[in-house]
Design a protein that fits this description.
This is ABC-2 type transport system ATP-binding protein. It holds the Pfam family ABC_tran. InterPro entries: AAA+_ATPase (IPR003593), ABC_transporter-like_ATP-bd (IPR003439), ABC_Transporter_VariousFunc (IPR051782), P-loop_NTPase (IPR027417). Keywords: ATP-binding, Nucleotide-binding, Transport. The longest helix is centred in the last third of the chain and has 22 residues. The chain folds into two domains: about 200 residues, P-loop containing nucleotide triphosphate hydrolases (Rossmann fold), CATH 3.40.50; about 80 residues. Helix content is about 35%, strand content about 30%. The radius of gyration is 21 Å and the shape is elongated. Helix 3 packs antiparallel against helix 4 and helix 4 runs parallel beside helix 5. A six-stranded mixed beta sheet has the order 5-6-7-3-8-9, sandwiched between helices. Strands 11-12-10-13 form a four-stranded antiparallel beta sheet. It has a three-stranded antiparallel beta sheet with strand order 2-1-4, covered by helices on one side. A hairpin with a 2-residue loop joins strand 8 and strand 9. The protein is an alpha/beta fold.
């Protein structure tokens, strides 16, 4: 099966600033992908490269097996501010979508508008943040894309509006079988809807993989203080902290942890994301201190 999104050594620079560096990922089709990382990590840049709004500085990117092209009917994109036209009504947005997109699914658009309770005569500028997000998702979904890219679509929404948006997203993906890549700071929301995770920090991919596999292979170890290098093969230390007598390690392990001196705890998705983000931040501090 063709990958939904595949990159090899993908790099993008804005002048002298590197926004994305040596990014290599292979996202299977048919997955709902969570793209997470701090501000400035490169999430928006990756999504804009994927929808053809930016060109790589170096490296390769393929979307559904093809080079990205702006305006592709196979890709739907909802940018950070869930862009809609304030002066147009909901109905006018649907008519514009039908005019611009040969694959437009009018019944789907009308059904979603009714499901989320949008007034067809209401101008978008008078809608709430949650309603605007639902309208933007409706317009993107009614293109009938094979890949839907969502850049922080729920960042400005209250919890109730976020829940409504995510419920609509889950219903749409289940019905249409579309691949989704959604960036967000809200890991708890991603955990509800995503089955694949990419963590970006400092413009680089720190980890990418199936959510169930990541949760199964990451552990917190607590035990007497020791050198993390003594853990042995098949275990990679993601994050380490120590007191005078105790070590606490976050590890990714493909081998059983059978040392009885360790207390072994499972992690949830947020624990895993925070461990990779913390280690990336600590690495930046070490680099800056080394430059003094």
């Amino acid at each position: 099966m063709t990958s939904a999104l595949e990159t090899v050594g993908l790099t993008h620079r804005y002048g002298r600033r590197t926004a994305l560096s040596d990014c290599t990922i292979d996202v299977p089709a048919g997955r709902v992908v969570g793209l997470v990382g701090p501000n400035g990590a490169g999430k928006s840049t990756l999504l804009q490269l994927a929808c053809g709004l930016l060109a790589p500085t170096t490296g390769e990117i393929r979307v559904l097996g093809e080079r990205p092209a702006s305006g592709s009917p196979r890709v739907g994109f909802v940018a950070q501010d869930t862009p809609v036209y304030a002066g147009l009504t909901v109905a006018e947005h649907l008519r514009m979508g039908a005019h611009l997109n040969p694959s437009w699914d009018a019944p789907l658009a009308e059904r979603r508008v009714a499901q989320v309770g949008l007034d067809r005569t209401q101008k978008a500028g008078k809608l709430s943040g949650g309603q605007r997000a639902q309208l933007a998702l409706t317009v993107a979904a009614a293109k009938r894309p094979d890949l839907l890219l969502l850049d922080e679509p729920v960042a400005a929404l209250d919890p109730l509006a976020r829940r409504g948006f995510l419920q609509g997203l889950m219903e749409f993906t289940a019905e249409q079988g579309v691949s989704v890549v959604m960036s967000s700071h809200l890991v708890a929301d991603l955990e509800r809807v995503c089955d694949y995770l990419i963590v970006l920090c400092e413009s680089r991919v720190r980890v990418a993989g199936d959510v169930e596999e990541l949760i199964a292979t990451h552990h917190r170890l607590v035990g007497p203080r020791r050198d993390p290098a003594d853990l042995g093969g098949g275990r990679a230390v993601v994050e380490a902290s120590h007191t005078d007598v105790q070590s606490t390690l976050i590890v990714r392990s493909t081998a059983p942890i059978d040392d009885p001196s360790w207390q072994v705890d499972r992690l949830d998705l947020e624990d895993i994301v925070l461990a990779y983000m913390s280690e990336a931040a600590a690495g930046r501090v070490r680099v800056l201190e080394g430059q003094r």
